[in-house]
Structure formats: C-alpha cells, structure tokens
Design goal:
By secondary structure, this protein is mainly beta. It is 0% helix and 52% strand. It contains no helices and eleven strands. The chain is globular and about 40 Å long.
C-alpha cells in the first residue's frame, strides 16, 4: 500500500526557514510526479510546488523565490525548502504523488502543520 509520510513541520518565526520531507514507500518513486500542497483554515487546498519525474519544477507565485522543491530518487523522498517564511504561509502542508501513467490516480500524505508566528 502506498504511503507518504511528511515530516519537518513546526512553529517558526517570520523570516525563518523550515525543510519539509516526504518519504514514499511501495511506489516506483522515479515514475511519480511529486508535489506539495497546503491548506489554511477556512481555505481550499492549494498547490505550492511540483517536481516532475524528470526533475522539472514549478511553484505558486506566492512562494516563488522563497520555496524550493527537490527530490532524491535514491531515498524515495521529496523535499520542500521554505525560506523567508511569512505568517500567511501558515497551513497544513500535504505531500502528493501522481504516477506518470495515470491522470486519475492520486496519493496523499497525512499532512504536517507549519505555523509562522512571532
């Protein structure tokens, strides 16, 4: 059974940094598009950043220049480096995996809370 386990969330002051990790199991990781999404209270889930199986990346305008997504296929892990954090980045962050051969299959992690506050 596919499992995505996020870690690295927590409380950080504005301007600080965090690195989120998402470890995947029971998938051919290199054949998955990986992404990070977030959901703040009362708001819909939104895309933060994605990285294709080939390593191409894209991210939301709101985090460009501050967040970086990367992957280590040898470790079956995707990362989200978050710098210059703002209070509006506060949300539950979810890891997502989509296989390259299917447009309908989606796997989600359980989420990790990120709180940016002084």
């Amino acid at each position: 059974q596919v499992q995505l386990v996020e870690s690295g969330g927590g409380l950080v002051q504005p301007g600080g940094s965090l690195r989120l990790s998402c470890a995947a199991s029971d998938i051919i990781f290199r054949r998955y598009k990986m992404g990070w999404y977030r959901q703040a209270p009362g708001k819909p889930r939104e895309l933060v950043a994605v990285i294709t199986s080939g390593g191409d990346t894209n991210c939301a305008d709101s985090v460009k220049g501050r967040f970086t997504i990367s992957r280590d296929n040898a470790k079956n892990t995707v990362y989200l480096q978050m710098n210059s954090l703002k209070p509006e980045d506060t949300a539950v962050y979810y890891c997502n995996a989509k296989p390259v051969w299917s447009i309908s299959t989606n796997y989600w992690g359980q989420g990790t809370q990120v709180t940016v506050s002084s």
